[in-house]
Amino acid sequence: MTKLRAMLFVAGMLFLGSTLVGQDAKKDGEKPKDPTATKVKGQLPSGWAKIGLTDQQKQKVYTIDAKYDDEIAQLTEKIKEFKDKKKKEQLEVLTAEQKKRLEDNLKKSAGTDKDK
To answer: Looking at the whole model, is its pTM more than 0.70?
Structure first.
């Protein structure tokens, strides 16, 4: 049994070693020779993976995704800012007593939500 384990270990090490030999050592700061050869990674929209897109089409879709994802992230942050500003302005309408009652009501409803 121990001989079998030793043989499996050696075989595994040889396999791993052989896969490492075939890889190129990348120098620090080395850039790809062709900037258009750099592949963009992403995820295709639902159903798109099975319609026979070429690699070039996939890359264009990924690039479009990245472009709009950045814009969407910026807009999402802006929406959050508007919602916070809206809430602040709404609270300014309330009197001190109303703010206190609202706070108490929110605490009570938060407590009942935990029980569910």
So the answer is: no
